[in-house]
Each structure stands twice: as structure tokens, then as C-alpha cells.
Amino acid sequence: MGSVERPGLYPITRPGATVADAIWAAGGPDKEAGRLVWFGPEGSTDPLRVDLDTLLHPHGTAALSMNPRVRAGDVITVAPAGQVLVDGWVEKPGSYTVTRGLTVVGAVAAAGGTQFAADERRVRIRRSIGPSEQRTFDIDFRATSAGEAPDFPLLDGDVVNVPVSVARLVPWGAWLLAREVVHIGGSIALF
Prior knowledge:
Layout: H1 19-25, E1 33-41, E2 48-51, H2 52-56, H3 60-64, E3 74-80, E4 83-88, E5 94-97, H4 104-110, E6 123-130, E7 133-139, H5 141-145, E8 159-162, H6 166-187
Parallel strand pairs: 4-8
Antiparallel strand pairs: 1-2, 1-3, 4-5, 6-7, 6-8
């Protein structure tokens, strides 16, 4: 079900068929697909959540264990891309569509990049794991955007917060004040 090319019922044609096999049988993910796949028996109230990229492009033996076998009656749902919120000291804070492969660097770029007063060493990502569980991840955005640290993949509902650097706040405020004085002075004679 969900964001695949041909949603529908599919027979299990071979023993040992996996979730990835079923997704490919349905034509693979469509252009609206997000990164989240729910998998479980029909009527399950607690389905397994799996990353779509890990399923379809496994790396190493650990990734293969994240591709469970399917049984008759299982329901596989490829979730559509959702939204990620980018807030804090970025040029255009707001909600952005999560596309497959979206990372923190891409989300901050979509938000116009960081402002001068941003503390790029302490960017925080908040992710809801369940109805009452939330996890936070802190990354060094400067190292990540320079390619010195791995980028962080985002999922639907993630919140990326770019905090302020107190040391950079005073110069940034002085620059804003100077810019406004020049702007007002350029259009209205104050002297």
C-alpha cells in the first residue's frame, strides 16, 4: 500500500521473500515516497518501522537483517513524503517536504542557509519515535556541511533547530542596526 507504483495484493511467489522483494514486485517506490515503511500482520497495532533506503539499497550484513521476510497476510505500507520543520537561526524558517535522501544539510539549504548568529556546532534534530517517545540528536553542522562528518538523514515529522551563538549575537545585532541606519539614512535625510 501507499507510495508504490502499483499498490495491491501480491502473492508470495517464493519462499524467503522479503519486504524489499514485495516493494519491487509492486513496481518500487513512486516519486511521492518518503523514507518510512511500515510492516506487520494485517490489523497490527504496532507495525515495524523500517527505512526504505536501507531496505532497497542494503550495505553489509547488518543491513540485510533489516529486511524481514514476508508471510501471508502481512501489510507493507510505503509512507508518502511528509514534512520536516527547520527553525531557529536560518534565513527562511518553516516546513519543508521530505524527499528521499533529504538530510540536515539539504533541509538547512532549503531554508536559505544559516544566519551569521547561528551556532553551527550544536544543531539539534528532534524525532518522534512513538506516541510518547522522542529522541534528540546533536550534530556539528559545520563539520557535516564541509564533508568532515556524515550527514544525518531526515524523516517525516523531524524538527531541525539551529540555535544562536551568544558570541556572534552582538556583532550580528550591530550589523543589523548599521544596515537599518544606512537604509533609513539613504531614503530620509536625518541629519
